[in-house]
């Protein structure tokens, strides 16, 4: 993940350097920086755009409902039913709620939990409850809607997890590493596109 960000940032810096190289037609660096500033761009080494993209925006970009019965199961549910729910909705994890509670999070169950604790251990998914193989609430990593996407990406990379519940006092959604990578690529691609249009434009 860190290599992806470094590669994208490297490409961006090369494009910016190319623009400065084309500034020999009477425009010095200060004037070029003013133009970049007018368009909301920066010549600093670190990409500033990612710091302004929040988890809430990633959830909105996914479209559809962020929460619902399709995203959750209960700790006393049968593992087989939980896995079928994931497959049916094409998702890799479910937030686990305590029995009888709508918003009290008990943990999370992922495809990895199923593979490691059911398949590899030879256990029956029909006779095993979700609570027996889930990652408990005490070890659950979460983010908030206002968490910036760069921070979310760092958390997921450092903790080596692929799914993170978004909780603002209550469950508001779930983001995956795929959602984060897509947001990073889209944001950076938009920046590079604007820079490319700047190079091709008649600004001299």
From TrEMBL:
<dbReference type="InterPro" id="IPR046342">
    <property type="entry name" value="CBS_dom_sf"/>
</dbReference>
<dbReference type="InterPro" id="IPR000644">
    <property type="entry name" value="CBS_dom"/>
</dbReference>
<dbReference type="InterPro" id="IPR051257">
    <property type="entry name" value="Diverse_CBS-Domain"/>
</dbReference>
<feature type="domain" description="CBS">
    <location>
        <begin position="60"/>
        <end position="126"/>
    </location>
</feature>
<dbReference type="Pfam" id="PF00571">
    <property type="entry name" value="CBS"/>
</dbReference>
<protein>
    <recommendedName>
        <fullName>CBS domain-containing protein</fullName>
    </recommendedName>
</protein>
<keyword id="KW-0129">CBS domain</keyword>
<dbReference type="InterPro" id="IPR044725">
    <property type="entry name" value="CBSX3_CBS_dom"/>
</dbReference>
<feature type="domain" description="CBS">
    <location>
        <begin position="134"/>
        <end position="192"/>
    </location>
</feature>
């Amino acid at each position: 993940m860190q290599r992806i960000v470094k590669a994208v940032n490297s490409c961006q810096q090369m494009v910016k350097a190319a623009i400065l190289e084309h500034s020999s037609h009477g425009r010095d660096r200060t004037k070029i920086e003013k133009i970049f500033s007018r368009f909301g761009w920066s010549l600093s080494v670190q990409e500033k755009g990612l710091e302004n993209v929040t988890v809430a925006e990633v959830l909105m970009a996914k479209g559809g409902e962020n929460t619902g019965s399709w995203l959750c199961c209960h700790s006393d549910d049968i593992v087989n039913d939980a896995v079928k729910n994931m497959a049916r909705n094409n998702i890799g994890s479910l937030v686990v709620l305590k029995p009888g509670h709508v918003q009290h999070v008990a943990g999370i169950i992922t495809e990895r939990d199923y593979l490691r604790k059911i398949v590899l251990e030879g256990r029956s998914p029909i006779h095993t409850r979700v609570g027996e193989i889930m990652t408990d609430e005490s070890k659950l990593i979460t983010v908030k809607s206002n968490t910036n996407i760069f921070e979310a990406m760092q958390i997921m990379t450092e903790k080596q997890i692929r799914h993170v519940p978004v909780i603002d006092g209550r469950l508001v959604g779930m983001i995956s590493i795929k959602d984060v990578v897509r947001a990073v690529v889209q944001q950076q691609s938009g920046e590079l596109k604007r820079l490319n249009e700047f190079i091709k434009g008649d600004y001299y």
